[in-house]
Structure formats: C-alpha cells, structure tokens
Amino acid sequence: MVHAKKRKELLHDIRITGRHPYISVEMEPNQIWLYISEDTPESRGLFEKIKAVLLRWRRRFTWLLHNSFLNGIASTLTMVGAVLGFRVQSRFLSVLIIALSLVCIFWAVYGFQDRTKRYTVIVSKHRIETPGFVKRNRDSILLAIISALIGALLTYFLK
Fold first, then answer.
1. How many structural domains compose the chain?
2. CA–CA separation, 6 vs 123, rounded Å?
C-alpha cells in the first residue's frame, strides 16, 4: 500500500507498507522511518536492502553543515576574524580574514536553511530521462562565472 502527497512530478511525503512480514517505510520532510514487525532473516534482509538504497542516495557532506563542533569553530572564527580583520595593518591579510569570516557566515546561514527546508524528494523518472548536471545548472554556473569575473575586475581596479 502506497500513500503519497504529490506536487507536479515530485513526491514529497510517501508511506509504503507491506504485510507478512509487516514492513513500513515513511519518508517525511525531516526524517525517514523504517519499521519491521519481526526480526526474521527475510524482514532483516529486506530492511537492509531498503537501508542500502536510502544510504546510497543520501546527500554527501551534509555532516559538514550540521556538525555542532564545526559550526562552533566557524562562529568563533567569524567573531575573531571580524575583530582582527579591521586591526591588521596589511591590506591583503585584512581582506583575507574578512573574506574567510564571510565564508563562515555563509556556511552557517546555508546550514540553517538546509536544516529547516530539508525534505525527501522522489522523482518518478528514470535516470536516462533526466538532463545532465550541466544542463540542469546552466544558469547557476553562468551566474557564478560572471560574478567571479566581476569580482576579479573590481579587485584589480580597486588596488
């Protein structure tokens, strides 16, 4: 039995259940639950297969965004960088410290937004039917290149 909330072609919340043995997979905005009724070799095998598929498709490096220790270090570096960035006599060093502080701030903001807007997305297409990475992100890549060029030109002319 499958229950799903569907918007456009994406499934956001889904629940899959089966009987004999009872197995349930629930994918919600912030979590995924796997239930098995009994710990038999069959249900354990199915559980491990589902778990392997979910782990294979898990986003990589999210532990960097949601690690409290690393976020604490980033916050400390941001505060120290803000103080030192304006007191250092070397212009290059002060710009470097302020830039690193801004990267830490961006990291914290992005990590917070990622944590609050996280959801499970199941796309009902085969991989062959989907466009490649470059086609999907062409606008973002072009914007990043233009921003880098403008930043480089401004840095060159302001020196």
1. 2
2. 10
The letter for the amino acid at 101 is S
CB within 8 A of 135, min separation 6: which ones? Answer: none
Distance CA 48, CA 54 (A): 10
Count CA atoms within 13 Å of residue 150 on its CB side: 6
What CA–CA distances, in Å, run from 47 to 31, 44, 65, 145? 16, 5, 28, 44
What are phi and psi for residue 80, nearest 5 degrees? -65, -40
In the block, tokens 């912030």 appear at 30
What domain range includes position 104?
62-158
Residues 99 and 119 in one domain: yes
User: pLDDT, tens digit, for every residue of 115-154?
Assistant: 555 555 555 566 677 778 888 888 889 999 999 999 888 8
* Predicted TM-score of the model (pTM): 0.37
Peptide bond into 21 cis (omega under 30): yes
Do 66 and 41 contact (CB within 8 A), yes or no? Answer: no
> 115 and 41, same structural domain?
no
Residues 104, 50 within the same domain: no
Residues 154 and 98 both lie in one domain = yes
